[in-house]
Amino acid sequence: MSACVLCAANETSAHVVAPRDQTVDLCETCAAGVAGSVEDTPHWLCLNEAIWSTEPAVQVLAYRVLHKLQSAIWARDLLDIAYLEPEILAWAESSMLDAADQVPDVVHRDTNGVVLAVGDNVVLIKDLPVKGAGFTAKRGTAVRGISLVADNAGHIEGRVEGQRIVILTEFVKKS
User: Fold this and answer.
1) What is the distance between the alpha carbons of residues 126 and 5, in angstroms, rounded to a whole number?
2) 22-78 tens-digit pLDDT
3) Which pTM does this prediction carry?
4) H/E stretch holding 93
5) DSSP assignment string, 27-89
6) Could you read off the pLDDT of 110-149 as tens digits, one per residue?
7) How far apart are the first and last CA of the chain?
8) How do the domains of the chain map onto residue ranges?
9) What class is the 122-174 domain?
């Protein structure tokens, strides 16, 4: 019996990485996370190493689980810096297409009512004091590659002056 390819646990079973017929060994926790929903727990910090594996199937599984954990800042940051070869990325995203086709429960809109999506660029329409960071984000500042807060239509996240901050959608317009 070999170790789990994501977390290195000992008790494993075979798991097929769809849509290819490649099989990997996963522990019960990792198999459940790959197949269903995932909560941000310390167990998933193993993805910090798994995403950099030389095995394409391991990268695919790590990428898929990280996408499920996008509400966690550490997972989103790891996805931002992770690089997958184009064919591996296509493999990883192939089973995620069905989930992406579903209509989201929460719709994020800018100040003009334009729908915002992950990765959009926005511009601040008002000077915003950033609590805890000691600076003010000035009107007209471009925020590139935003993230959406999954459970709150009024909040997005983005980087301003190197800090990841939460921004109210009423103070941005899509650019």
Assistant:
1) 47
2) 899 999 999 999 988 888 899 999 999 999 999 999 999 999 999 889 888 899 899
3) 0.58
4) helix 86-94
5) -HHHHHHHHS-----GGGGGHHHHTT-SSHHHHHHHHHHHHHTTTSHHHHHHHHH----HHHH
6) 999 999 988 899 999 999 998 888 899 999 999 999 998 8
7) 53
8) 13-101, 122-174
9) mainly beta
